[in-house]
Specification:
alpha/beta, UDP-N-acetylmuramoyl-L-alanine:D-glutamate ligase, nine-stranded mixed β-sheet, two-stranded antiparallel ribbon, globular
């Protein structure tokens, strides 16, 4: 069976605003010339104000989706988004172990308004088994803090956290620098820096201009773009830089859909 390099898979939550989640994965990958097979892990209730509820699907329901769609299709790369609970994490693990998919794991833990998108048990299983199996891990600063258990207050802390996490995964880790409201030293700068690590070592960083406005779903855009570039056969370090650049362009091209300044990438 031949691998179709224009196909990848995403297991993620549904976002009715289409600014994030599985909807954004499909849009981003499509713009980059990749077809995204879409597996729903959970349904979220959200609008421009934030997330107000989540309905995680069972392991059986998620697995049924993957087993049917992957029965006759060979996929090399995929990604995860919000997984909801242990069942979502188990389903992602199954995609790696049964189907041999290299996963970009976006460890979505909570929404911007603080609503939890992964249960405590799901987080523990992610740390114990999914992260060590991941091909790429793409936490933001808040998620990197929780995974590494290192308080991030300055750039050196980011480097320590990244090195620690990439020792666990024994693979690639990208710490995204866009979510910095609780880190005054970093918040004052006009530059966002994404950091790449591999197997316990810092590799390189990519700097970009900080936007003056918030865009919904930038984490999903980044991990989806990264997965698309990997699917197209681009080497990991180059895919990292391309994904950072693409996310910056997506922010610049975002559209305000409410009077409150809720921006999404169309």
């Amino acid at each position: 069976m031949k691998s179709n390099t224009n196909l990848c898979i995403s297991i993620a939550g549904s976002d009715p605003t289409s600014g994030a989640g599985i909807q954004q994965d499909v849009k981003t990958m499509s713009k980059l010339g990749v077809i995204c097979i879409s597996i729903i892990s959970c349904i979220t209730y959200q609008n421009e104000k934030g997330v107000f509820g989540i309905y995680p699907l069972s392991f059986e329901v998620i697995s049924r989706q993957t087993d049917v769609v992957l029965k006759n299709i060979k996929i090399k790369f995929g990604k995860t988004g919000a997984l909801g609970n242990e069942d979502g994490v188990k389903a992602a693990i199954k995609i790696i172990e049964k189907y041999g998919v290299s996963l970009v794991v976006d460890p979505v833990l909570q929404s911007k308004n603080g609503f939890p998108l992964l249960s405590k048990g799901g987080f523990e299983l992610m740390k114990k088994k999914l992260i060590p199996l991941s091909f790429f891990l793409t936490p933001n600063l808040n998620e990197a803090e929780k995974i590494s258990e290192i308080k991030i207050e300055k750039k050196d802390d980011i480097l320590k956290a990244g090195e620690k996490i990439s020792k666990i995964s024994k693979s690639f880790v990208i710490i995204k620098g866009g979510h910095t409201p609780e880190i005054p030293q970093i918040e004052k700068t006009k530059i966002i820096e994404d950091f790449l690590f591999f197997n316990g070592n810092f590799v390189k960083s990519f700097k970009k201009k900080k936007s003056s406005f918030q865009v919904h779903g930038t984490g999903c855009i980044f991990s989806a773009a990264l997965t698309a570039f990997l699917t197209r056969g681009i080497e990991p370090q180059i895919a990292f830089a391309k994904a950072s650049k693409w996310t910056q362009k997506a922010i610049e091209k975002s559209i305000k859909i409410t009077n409150e300044g809720f921006n999404i990438f169309p």
